[in-house]
Specification:
This protein is mostly helical and 137 residues long. It is 64% helix and 0% strand. The chain is built from four helices and no strands. It is elongated, with a radius of gyration of 17 Å. It starts with 18 loop residues before the first helix and ends in a 6-residue tail after the last helix.
């Protein structure tokens, strides 16, 4: 079974990022104590991770463009993860020697984008509070 996730960078109304579900899927895949997923589970995990990658990539891209490039390190790291995510989203699924979808690289990329998502949102909130400080009630 080949699953294709369409990835667009055009602005649109996106669903909010489910950080709890994203974190749970990443943890399931990257936990060294967990059993290796079978073929059906690896295909489901790959589908979930590719969906999270597509959503996170759009969110990080949008917030990154709104931020000024003052924090060059954040921009460079986030841009590298966005490039990696674009590669995974455009490529056909990779398979392991056990004939299961290789979900670990997807999970690592998703984890990195998840971290950048939190970082750019934090930076964006800091910029908004300087530009438009909240007034006391």
């Amino acid at each position: 079974m080949i699953v294709t996730v369409e990835h667009e960078t055009a602005a649109h109304q996106a669903l909010p990022v489910d950080t709890v579900l994203t974190g749970a899927v990443i943890e399931r895949v990257l936990d060294p104590r967990a059993l290796r997923p079978d073929r059906a589970e690896s295909e489901l995990l790959a589908l979930l991770l590719r969906g999270h990658l597509a959503l996170l990539a759009l969110e990080v891209q949008g917030v990154l463009e709104a931020l000024s490039p003052q924090n060059e390190r954040l921009h460079v790291l986030a841009r590298r993860s966005l490039d990696e995510a674009a590669h995974f989203l455009s490529a056909r699924p990779m398979y392991t020697a056990h004939d299961t979808v290789a979900v670990v690289p997807l999970a690592r990329c998703c984890r990195d984008l998840h971290v950048h998502y939190a970082a750019v949102n934090s930076a964006c909130r800091a910029v908004r509070s300087v530009i438009c400080p909240t007034r006391p009630s």
